[in-house]
Write a structure and sequence with these properties.
By secondary structure, this protein is an all-beta fold. The chain contains one helix and ten strands; from the N terminus they run E-H-E-E-E-E-E-E-E-E-E.
Length: 208
């Protein structure tokens, strides 16, 4: 004879309560129909969470936790940065301290606490070769010292075929801790290389 199998108890839809008021950042998520739903995390969540997202919580209106699964996606989260703005050249005595042949652009990031990412640059130029770097100004170690400049990424960008479009340049950026960096292009004796777009590729996650 067939044995009677007891029906498994349904999984709880909510967990233990949490004090949502103690979280530094909170926001509402879009409503979803009943059943399995997915929520893609944006740059704000990545910037305001700890590495690994272990401090991320979902809760209902009553403060009860909603269980979720975290998935890291292969496709990165792409952010188009603001058009690059050339840095103003210093005047007076400071002008002589700046090396010639360099183009410097302000690189504005949406958040100072973004995780490690990839900076992707594009140009419409066809034949060129440039050394490109990203610099970050760090505070002076003591009141008697000057702020220090740290090179956080650099690479060689070249293209020799006038019949094809130039490849993008990808620079690996660590977690910077600042919302502004400087893109430095060593032009040598050439005219400034036109940079058409700057894009940031971040790790991509979604919740189920």
């Amino acid at each position: 004879p067939e044995e009677a199998v007891a029906a498994a108890a349904p999984l709880p839809a909510v967990g233990a309560p949490i004090e949502t008021a103690k979280f530094r950042y909170s926001r509402k998520v879009p409503a979803a129909p009943q059943g399995l739903a997915s929520l893609r995390l944006d740059a704000a969540v990545l910037a305001h969470s700890r590495p690994g997202l272990e401090d991320l919580r979902l809760a209902d209106a009553g403060g009860l936790q909603i269980p979720y699964l975290l998935e890291k996606r292969d496709e990165p989260l792409a952010l188009d940065l603001s058009p690059l703005v050339a840095e103003k050249k210093p005047a007076g005595k400071d002008a002589s301290k700046r090396p010639t042949g360099l183009s410097r652009y302000l690189l504005a990031l949406p958040y100072a606490t973004l995780p490690a990412a990839r900076l992707v640059l594009a140009t419409k130029a066809r034949v060129f070769e440039r050394q490109v770097a990203v610099e970050v100004e760090r505070p002076a170690p003591d009141p008697r010292s000057q702020p220090q400049v740290e090179i956080v990424a650099e690479g060689r960008w070249r293209h020799t075929d006038p019949e094809t479009a130039a490849p993008h340049l990808a620079l690996e950026l660590p977690r910077l801790g600042v919302a502004q960096a400087t893109l430095v292009v060593d032009e040598g004796d050439n005219t400034p290389l036109p940079i058409s777009t700057a894009r940031l590729l971040l790790p991509s996650y979604r919740l189920f």
